[in-house]
Amino acid sequence: MNTARHHSALLALAGTALALSLTACQEGSGVDSSSAATPAATVASSSKGAGATAATGADASDAAGSAGSTGSKGSAGSKGSTGSAGSAGSAGGNSGQAAASTPVCTARDIRVTAAAQDGTPTTHIVLTAKNTTGHSCRLTGFPHVQFLESHKQDVPAVAKSRPAAPVVLAAGAPAYALVKLSDGGVDEDNEPVSAFSVTLEGDDSTVIAVTAPGGEGIAVDPAKALTGYWTPELRNGADDF
Question: Are the C-beta atoms of 129 and 230 separated by less than 8 Å?
Fold first, then answer.
């Protein structure tokens, strides 16, 4: 009986030792598996960060390349070729050359008359120069008018009435010039004029005597008198002064 109990006790001790050994082995293997997983997670995180950096660099290079392509818009400067329209001026040059070859009108070529403009008092008259020859002549500048013997200066000309092209009078054709006498005020220093003198540019040595319109003549204020240029017709605006 003692022998059987002794044998049972030995078996119990051996089983306890075996259980302790197995428990120790299981605990050691758990520590190794957790420590091995840690480097794998670190490598995965690092590789993800590198990928993001590479993608960002590619996007930047693509954006820079596309921005540089906009420089091609400079080709719009080719519109400057429209400057060739300036050649149209040659037509005006031919007209000017033809007019320049026409002889200048002299006092023997034309007859000058004066008429009062509508309205009272008479503040303006219109001079008409008619070509009385059988050929064309060129009437230049403006009429050089002197109203009074006491005032030897020519009446000043109004620059805005100058025509754009030379005035060429065909045979029998007229030209006109508007002349201002006064402002029409009762307090002006007006003087009566029954006749006055006109000379032409290009023939200023010959005086043309012109009879004033109206039976009683005209009233002239020498300080206010003005004349326009010779034109083929009177024009609103340019000949209003």
Answer: yes
Q: How far is CA 203 from the centre of its chain?
A: 44
Q: Quick check: 207 and 199 in contact, CB under 8 A? A: yes
What is the model's pLDDT at position 146?
96
- How buried is residue 145: exposed, middle or buried, by Cβ count under 10 Å (0-12/13-18/19+)? buried
Up-side HSE of residue 45: CA atoms within 13 Å toward CB? Answer: 6
Q: How far apart are CA 111 and CA 99, in angstroms?
A: 21
Cα–Cα distance measured from residue 149 to residue 199, given in angstroms and rounded to the nearest whole number: 15
* Six token digits for residue 146: 């002197």
**Cα–Cα dist 235/156, whole Å:** 19
Tell me the mean pLDDT in the region 125-151.
Answer: 94
pLDDT digit string (tens) for 41-72? 333 333 334 333 333 334 434 434 443 444 44
Q: How far apart are CA 11 and CA 32, in angstroms?
A: 33
- What lies within 8 Å, CB to CB, of 211 at 6+ separation is 113, 114, 194, 195
